[in-house]
Write a structure and sequence with these properties.
186 residues; alpha/beta; 3-stranded parallel sheet; two-stranded parallel sheet; 6 helices; 7 strands
């Protein structure tokens, strides 16, 4: 990079079309959305300059508005309406920050991945939250994301393989239950 500056671009699983689970870093980008196309173009610019790209799946934090809203509603006996046809492969914000720190320390060029191990619908996140706080399961009322999210955003897979991150840093794709449990305890 110019004058020895290191750039790490935070990118997204949306550079892919969501048809393949655990996408490999060497797979050619095939975005379905303008957002994915913009991120893919930015990746190429950063890579040409010798920088690094970190593709992320959904990053969850305990203070995420969605989780807090659902928690408030469930605790008051109000129903929540998570999507049954929008999927996520979450990682915790702490997991993502740990990998970002390591990549920055190493000034690691190339493409890197940070993703949960499996895709599940948002309804699974709501069900885990209800169980964790002792709310009745019948307060979970799944709906379709169709009216809010076009088909290009309702893909079956958001996972990215993390083989290189596992070899280099001992960081493997975390499981859904592990990630969600950590977020809900946070």
């Amino acid at each position: 990079t110019p004058r020895g500056t290191y750039c790490l671009q935070l990118s997204t699983d949306k550079v892919f079309d969501g048809t393949v689970a655990l996408r490999a870093r060497g797979d050619a980008p095939c975005p379905l959305t303008a957002y994915g196309r913009q991120k893919a173009a930015a990746e190429q610019a950063v890579l040409r300059a010798g920088g690094g790209v970190l593709r992320l799946s959904k990053v969850l934090a305990p203070d995420l508005d969605l989780v807090q809203d659902w928690r408030r509603k469930l605790l008051t006996g109000a129903p929540v309406t998570p999507f049954h046809d929008l999927r996520l492969a979450p990682v915790t914000v702490d997991f993502a920050v740990d990998l970002i720190r390591r990549l920055l320390d190493d000034r690691a060029a190339g493409i890197h991945h940070c993703s949960g191990a499996e895709d599940r619908p948002y309804v699974a996140l709501a069900e885990a939250l209800a169980k964790a706080i002792g709310a009745p399961a019948n307060l979970i009322r799944p709906i379709s994301a169709g009216p809010l999210f076009p088909p290009a955003q309702r893909v079956p897979h958001t996972t990215l393989e993390m083989d290189a991150e596992n070899r280099r840093y001992g960081l493997a794709n975390p499981g859904f239950d592990t990630t969600v449990g950590a977020v809900l305890r946070g």
